[in-house]
Amino acid sequence: QVQLVESGGGLVQAGGSLRLSCAASGRPFIMYFMAWFRQAPGKEREFVAAISRSGDTTYITNSVKGRFTISRDNAKATVSLQMNSLKPEDTAVYYCAASRSSYSESPTSYDYWGQGTQVTVSS
Q: Which of 61, 2, 59, 45 lies closest to 26 in space, CA to CA?
């Protein structure tokens, strides 16, 4: 089992930046394919970005491509989401997730979740 704890959320003006971090503990971090999801009020949880176990392959959803970057540090057991040029529509609770499997954009494919961190972008 792995425990995930997100940090770095907050309130930012449109056009600003935030960096989310997710710290993992428990089983070896490199065992897990990692991803970020988000959920806005009244909406389903949606895929944002994912990264392979080695960190050499990343996947970014189209709506944030060119603005968000995912990275991981296996030595520190952390995964990060750098968010630039933020828009009001990026407002959501952001969740870190870990999978024992491989790439998927479906939340049901992920085995472990953090508690989420709120990101609010004001216009």
A: 2
pLDDT at 57 over 90: yes
The per-residue DSSP string of 11-74 comes to EEETT--EEEEEEEEES-GGG-EEEEEEE-TTS--EEEEEE-SSSS-EEE-GGGTTTEEEEEET
Give me the amino acid identity at 83. M
DSSP state of 91: -
Q: What is the pLDDT of residues 3-43, one digit of tens each?
A: 999 999 999 999 999 999 999 998 899 999 999 999 999 99
